[in-house]
Amino acid sequence: MNDIALEASPFAPFTTGRLTLRNRIVMAPMTRSRAVDTRATDDMVDYYRQRAGAGLIITEGTQPSPIGQGYPDTPGLHSAAQVEAWAKVTAAVHEAGGTIVAQLMHVGRLAHPDTTEAAGHGRLTPVAPSAIAARGQIHTPTGQQDLVTPSALTEGQVDETIADFAAAAENAIAAGFDGVEVHGANGYLLHQFLSANANLRTDRWGGSVENRLRFPIAVVAAVAAAIGADRTGLRISPNNGLGDTDEPDAAAVYPQLVEALDPIGLAYLHLVEAGAPELTPRIRDAWHSALLLNPVGPDLSAHSARLDLITGGTADLVSFGRLFIANPDLVERLASGAELASPDMTKAYGGGREGYADYPALDESRVLA
Ligand SMILES: Cc1cc2nc3c(=O)[nH]c(=O)nc-3n(C[C@H](O)[C@H](O)[C@H](O)COP(=O)(O)O)c2cc1C
């Protein structure tokens, strides 16, 4: 039937919870390190406005607290000044007909004292489930630095961190966002709690699979209680190994996590499909709300296969990261089969408008040509 065919089109509108999407193609969260004093700038207003044709924009990772910041020049959502600056972004996106949620990202043990110092918060020691340093280095204002040994969150600090997420979610709504995405992926704090090698706690926040799920579930539940489950999303990345996470039991952890979260009725689950693609059908089956899929692969030309995931029913929504950097009007280009521009990844992090807010839309480049 035509109606059914229309429903499965990547270009058809989609509603989930309180989120109304003009199409099913989502801009994935991307840290771009262009905030000033942890606040959104006019360049950021332009950058997000230009991409309002996405069904949903998920912002760059945004710290819910000073200690949650992971990279230089990233924005926060824990002060009135940050809320005020973000409000210009959300107003611009809404004026252009778009929908935008804030990604709340606490990096846990991947933070660095040089970064918190440059942000004006002093040399903070990172916090994590356990006092275990991740192997590797991280980008800081003083260049690449070895990751440091974090301090293990006390039970009181665990509760405070959960409260920080809820407060940041309320701030996001005050700033005009349509909702928030909790970052539970890519080796950051929530993922560290899930991961067998990063979480060696012996209290109720660690040990068994059930205990390791407790913190991510508590954060999501607190955010949902604060602003409504129907405008809260969660991002996960089973077994992708980022941030030195090791998940030999991903096949037990993630289906159980999804089953536990399903009754909360979140707006969506954002699944980064990298290290355990075999779990995707199980997660799809266990999840009754919208599934947003981000199949990670190096090949930027595989975009039509990604759209097929919607047509074929594997996912309700799909997200694109790098292609949205270079193609502000990505949805229109995909719809018309137009040529896609390639991003200059040397300008991914930091700098000014160049390689950021100066990629033309197709119509503009025709005018310029
Ligand atoms: C420059 C850059 C910054 C990123 N920052 C974030 C981030 O802040 N939060 C997040 O969850 N993922 C982040 N990612 C991962 C993307 O959301 C996405 O998963 C990844 O780019 C794969 O999708 P793609 O193949 O469409 O680019 C980032 C990726 C890139 C390229």
Q: What attributes characterize this protein structure?
A:
14 strands; 369 residues; 16% strand; 35% helix; alpha/beta; TIM Barrel; disordered N terminus; binds flavin mononucleotide; 8-stranded parallel barrel
- When the domains are counted, the total is 1
CATH fold-level name: TIM Barrel
Spatial strand arrangement across the major sheet: 3-4-5-10-11-12-13-14
The largest sheet is: 8 strands, parallel, barrel
Description:
With 369 residues, the protein is an alpha/beta fold. It has one domain (2-368): Aldolase class I (TIM Barrel, Alpha-Beta Barrel), CATH 3.20.20. The chain is 35% helix and 16% strand. The strands form four sheets. Strands 3-4-5-10-11-12-13-14 form an eight-stranded parallel barrel, surrounded by four helices. Helix 2 runs parallel beside helix 3 and helix 5 (155-174) runs parallel beside helix 7. The radius of gyration is 19 Å and the shape is globular.
Describe the secondary structure blueprint for this structure.
Elements: H1 2-7, E1 14-16, E2 19-21, E3 25-27, H2 42-50, E4 56-62, H3 80-95, E5 100-104, H4 113-118, E6 127-128, E7 137-140, E8 143-146, E9 151-152, H5 155-174, E10 179-184, H6 189-194, H7 209-227, E11 232-236, H8 250-261, E12 268-273, H9 280-286, E13 290-295, H10 303-311, E14 317-320, H11 322-326, H12 330-336, H13 362-368
Residues 28-31, 60-61, 103, 105, 183, 185-186, 235, 272, 294, 296, 320-323, 348 line the site of flavin mononucleotide.
